[in-house]
Every structure is written in C-alpha cells, then in structure tokens.
Amino acid sequence: MRIVRLANFVTPTSGGLRTSLQHLGEGYTAAGHEPVLVIPGVRAGDEMTDAGRVITLPGLAVPGTGGYRLLIGTGRVAALLARLRPDRLEVSDRTTLRWTGAWARRHGVPSLMVSHESLAGLLDVWRLPPKRAAAIADRLNGRTAAAFDTVVATTEWAAAEFRRIGATNLRRVPLGVDLDAYHPSRRSPALRRTLAGDDELLLVTVSRLSPEKRPDRTLDALAALRAAGVRATLAVAGDGPLLGALRERADGLPVRFLGFLRDRREVATLLATADVVIAPGPVETFGLAALEALASGTPAVVDAASALPEVVGAAGVAVTGADFAAGVREVLSRPAAQCRAAARARAELFGWSDSAAGFLAAHGLAEGGVVLPGQRRPAAALGDGRPVDGAMGPAVA
Question: Which residues form the Glycosyl transferase family domain (predicted)?
Fold first, then answer.
C-alpha cells in the first residue's frame, strides 16, 4: 500500500516530528508498504531513504520560527497527490493542510491526521484569554475531525481536546524510542568532565529553543539550585529563535550552549551522561526527548501540565508551577542506581515497531499491506506496485 504522508514544520534541525516521520516510515517499509513523505524545504528534492521516498517542495518560510516552512499552493500539492495515487493519506498538520482531507474523500482515499501538538495549549502559550482560546480550539478541532476519516493522538493528554468536542474517529497510538541508539552504555565520563567536571551535577535539556518549549525554565532551575548551594551545570542542546535571548539570560551562570546536534550518537551520549534531564515544555503532547533520556538511563523532570507525566511515569518527576529545581532535588533524593534502572525499564515499554503497527492499524492496514475487513481499496489508487508517473523524477512540474 502506498501511504503518502504530508507534513509541515519539518527542518533539518527540527526534532520530535522529524524523528517520528523517520521511524514510522521505516516501520511502514518493514511491514511491506510504500511510504512517500512530502515536506517543504528551500528547494525541490526527491530521494529514496530508509524511511521511503521523500519529496521536498519549495516552501514558504515562516518568519520568527527559526527556519520552519509551509507547503503552499493547493493546486501544486493536489497535482502531486494525483500523480502519487495514494492508497492512504497521512497528514501531520491540522491547519494549513486540512484541505487535503477533503481531497482524499473526493478521491476515495482513506485519510488520517496525526495530532502532534495541542491547539488549545498553543493558544494558551500565545496568551489568548482561556475562554476564547478554548472556543477557537474547539471550532478548529471540530473542522479537523470532520475533515479526516481518523484522528490519531499519541497520548491521552493530546486526545483530550478531541474528546471534549465528541470526536468519534479518534485513535490513540503512542510514539516510540530507539532503544539501541539511546542506551545507558553510552554514558561518557570524558564528556562529563568536559561539560561539568567530576564534582558538579550535570543537567541537560534537549529542545528546540522556541517560545512554546519554554527553555528559559531550565535557566531558572539552574539559578535556583545554585542559589540553594547545589553545584550544577546546564548543557543546552538545540537551536531556535530564542537562542540569543537565552544566552543573555544565562550570563553569569554555568551554561553550555551546544547548538543543534545533528549526529544522534552525540545526543545519545549527552543524554546518557546527564544526571538529570529537564523537559520544560508545558504543552508537549508526547515528548520524545524525555523518552530518549529515559532510554539512556537518565531520569527526567517534566511539567505536570503536559502529556509527559503519562510518558515518564514513576521514572521521572512531574512538577507543578514550573518549579523544576524542586523536581531536580526530588530526583537527587532517590538512589541514583535505582533511578537509572527505572528510567530504562520505563523506556522499554515504548518501541517504534509497536508504534508503527499501531499507526498501520489506525490506517486500517495489517502487516504486509492486507486490507482489513470493512476497508475498501480505492479504485483510483490500486497500490499494486506499478510505478507512479514520473517516479524519482522532478517532484514539481
């Protein structure tokens, strides 16, 4: 089955969404399907990867977002979809790409939208009055739920805003973690000495440095801990529009800004070497970085208002009121070996193969591309292995 996936807000330096698209594509391929990912970029591209075919369309840069782009031109995207002839459509953008749900319905293609963010939460971050934010979120989420055959949420927290409007086409499928790439064995005493020395607590945050992620909270936690006499250093891995402001705010504090780490082995080593990972985002719908920390054997301190308590469970500490310093102290009060073992054990409950299987089930597909009972194969998209017109040629006419 050809599963065409559309996604916005994906860049070479983006984190969770890009990771999810990669691993789910690999899972779809392993199950015998043909994933095709369409994303925006600086220039057109068309390549085969381990996660399937990736088509890049020149996209519109979104000011102030640190490089995010949008797929624009409904006619252009619709023409590409017609050439690709999908058996299934999977969309990772509930707003600017909502129209593709109607396209899929007109062409007899079952469609699925993945809720990678909380609209209500983002509106709250943008400081809209709560009642107005809830009303806007409900209206837009209602349109999204009506546009697609299936809506997938990765946590119950993410599903709540759709349950509130009575959506009946909602499925919950958790994401996963690469348990081989992220492992406690990657802990590096040499890196620890480089970043913090042998006698200081090493705190780490891995995040896009953008307003909704609230990376400033990690600096507040570090300042509070040092004021309380805790010798601690913070390493920040990530890039984004707030980098300059954070550097200014960190003046006088032992903070190492590492930038975006392109090699996931570097990220894995950093997470395994940390004593505590802080995941400060208040509107995270899953939190892959926190789960990767657990897989690395490192406990995570997360915001209790987000979906992360569902993910980290007792292997982490959820704080209210953004008191991440208190959360770090709570972790330090526990036996370190037990904390690290519990973190790894929790992560082992989440695997990408299980996640891919869950997404395929949400698509109405079983392993190997079998159509499940009640799911018809669209006549316009046979999925019989015939090449798409212009396959591996230019993606844009």
Answer: 196-345
